Amino acid sequence: MREGTRPGTRPGVREERTDPSGASSPKESAVRRHLTSLHIPVLTLVALAPLVALAACNSTRTLKGTDVVASEPAKLEARAPIDIAVLPVVNNSKRKGVPAKELRGAFELALIQRRYSPLASEFVDGRVVEAGYRPGALKEDAALTVTVESWDDSLWDSHTAVTVTIHASITDAAGAELWKGQLTQRFDLGKDRESYSTDAPLRAALSNKIAGELLAALPARPAKPGHAN
Fold first, then answer.
1. Burial group, residue 83, by CB count within 10 angstroms (0-12, 13-18, 19+)
2. Of 222, 186, 214, 179, which is closest to residue 66 (Cα–Cα)?
């Protein structure tokens, strides 16, 4: 037997020695690091699983304005109107329950929330009623026309629910259309009924929901640098 060779080992094959303290040899450490690295992608996917599930849940959340069928915003953004005349609501549904005044005020508020400046309705009405409205006659940048195509309030008394089809159109001072959007949706305010003592404020709340939903699809004016709005 060759000196330095332990029984049971082949000549010429170097034996890997283990540190008496139990520490791994450099080769063993390298192998373990390699094997450990193979598990990193698996561990990463496991760690990300809750985030993937959360993203999937968020993707199914209904966002405001997503039910609106709207035109491309290019013309509106190119013209960039600021002062907008909100004309009296057109009621094509012929239903007497349409809250035209409340809807008009709600659309004025919704425009403000999108950083536009609606003209005072009293000023607009003075021109519309007395002389008839002509685009640009009010020195406005654009005009908003809201048309109620259908208004089904047969479930209002029992469920405080209304199903509407409503259309909005913005035209410039020359009468050219810059943007339009249409919404058909059921609005259910049954949970809010107890918060109102009379029907009038409840219908105003309904109008705000309708206007907010429809104009959520309207591109907001960009905020000025250094300003919140």
1. middle
2. 214
Q: What is the pLDDT of residues 154-211, one digit of tens each?
A: 999 999 999 999 999 999 999 999 999 999 999 999 988 888 889 899 999 999 999 9
Q: How far apart are CA 217 and CA 229, in angstroms?
A: 18
Q: Around Cβ 125, how many Cβ atoms within 10 Å?
A: 14
E strand residue ranges, 100-206: 117-118, 142-152, 161-172, 177-188
Closest by CA position to 73, among listed 181, 191, 190: 181
pTM, two decimal places = 0.70
Distance between CA atoms of 27 and 115, rounded to whole angstroms? 67
- In CATH, the architecture of 69-215 is 3-Layer(aba) Sandwich (3.40)
How far apart CA 106 and CA 147 sit, in angstroms, is 14
Q: What is the pLDDT of residues 20-49, one digit of tens each?
A: 455 555 555 554 554 445 443 433 434 444
Strand partners, 143: 85, 171
Which residue has tokens 């006659």? 137
Q: Where exactly are the structural domains of the chain? A: 23-54, 69-215
Q: Where are the beta strands (DSSP E) in 87-157?
A: 90-91, 117-118, 142-152
User: Among residues 83, 86, 92, 124, which one has the least CA distance to residue 105?
Assistant: 86
